[in-house]
Write a structure and sequence with these properties.
This protein has 323 residues and is an alpha+beta fold. It has helices at 9-18, 30-37, 88-98, 155-165, 170-180, 185-202, 213-227, 233-242, 248-257, 279-299, 306-318; strands at 42-46, 49-54, 57-62, 71-77, 103-105, 112-117, 122-127, 133-138. The chain starts with 8 loop residues before the first helix and ends in a 5-residue tail after the last helix.
Length: 323
């Protein structure tokens, strides 16, 4: 039975498929969200964070100082506020009909089932007892694969391993890994990601991070994660840029080299529909947007090469219409 307006079933399925509400997503600036959704909202500010609500939809941003622009944190649909509950069975049928089913992952242990659509980075929380959808959000903090698996090793073991690795030269690290790495490919992938996460917990924050022994170890582990299939080329570049493991020019170059498509050929919301037959182009556009944002953040760190700055600026001009 169709849901009563103003929130038909397609309102929720479109958010799961596209990661957007009326074209606005987690990367949209406050002004862009206003242009797309209007000025009928409530908003609050607290400790460098900004939260805005449009009925069920929420957008959040953060910044470190008043001089910096607002960076998107998340976009969310608070389905638990509905007078008529949105049932996951109904939403699941609509998503399957559209050709974009979600995947169920491990429950949260607090009475909720969790589902994810990984290409749009959208996660859903569903009440275990009633089957009602509670929240739909992007980017999601849960999913499938080695990065989301429960570690089979203790945090103490990870700390000890990376503290040993950081003191080794490249050959020593390779010998150590050859002796320690699990044999099965899936377990080995989880192990490399566990080591990278353990290393990043020890890597200093701020300007002292780049060039530190810990940053060097993290770069080596990012490469191992890519070899093991945990990260693809774009995801590796995003880790390096987001963690500030390289100087700004090098990080930008890595992001631009990882672009899966040219600016001339990238799919946009004006040229390409969110349909199964366009999914490859849509996902390339999503990766390009993420890489453009990561490269854009490096400009604040002081990219020196004019050609790099110009290329990043050109990508950022496209960002609002990327998928």
């Amino acid at each position: 039975m169709p849901r009563p307006d103003p929130f038909p079933l397609t309102y929720f399925s479109d958010f799961v498929i596209t990661g957007t509400v009326g074209g606005a997503d987690a990367t949209s600036t406050p002004d862009e969200v206003t242009a797309l959704l209007g000025d009928d909202f409530v908003e609050s500010f607290e400790r460098g964070q900004r939260l805005r609500g449009y009925d069920l939809a929420e957008f959040a941003w953060q910044r470190l100082s008043p001089e910096e622009p607002w960076d998107g944190l998340y976009a969310m649909v608070q389905a638990h506020r509905l007078e008529v509950p949105l049932l996951m069975d109904d939403l699941d049928r609509e998503l399957r009909r559209a050709g974009f089913p979600v995947t169920e992952v491990a429950p949260d242990g607090l009475g909720c089932r969790r589902f994810v659509r990984e290409d749009s980075r959208v996660g859903l929380l569903v009440d275990e007892d009633t089957g009602a959808v509670l929240k739909i959000s992007t980017p999601t903090w849960f999913g499938t694969g080695p990065r989301y698996a429960t570690p089979a090793w203790s945090r103490e073991a990870g700390r000890d391993w990376v503290e040993h690795l950081v003191g080794l030269d490249p050959d020593g690290r390779e010998r150590w890994a050859a002796h320690r790495a699990p044999g099965a490919a899936e377990e080995r992938a989880r192990w490399w990601w566990f080591l990278l996460d353990s290393c990043l917990r020890r890597t200093p924050k701020g300007p002292d991070r780049t060039g530190s022994p810990w940053a060097g170890l993290a770069l080596w582990l990012v490469g191992k994660c890519r070899t093991a299939g945990v990260l693809d080329r774009a995801e590796a570049a995003l880790e390096v840029a987001g963690r500030e493991l390289l100087p700004p020019d090098e990080a930008v170059r890595m992001c631009l080299d990882a672009m899966p498509v040219s600016r001339a050929g990238v799919a946009t919301r004006h040229t390409t529909a969110y349909t199964r037959e366009h999914l490859v182009a849509v996902n390339r556009s999503r990766q390009a947007k993420a890489l453009a944002l990561a490269a854009g953040a490096q400009l604040r760190r002081g990219v020196r090469e004019p050609a790099l700055r110009a290329e990043v600026a050109a990508w950022l001009e496209l960002r609002p219409v990327l998928m």
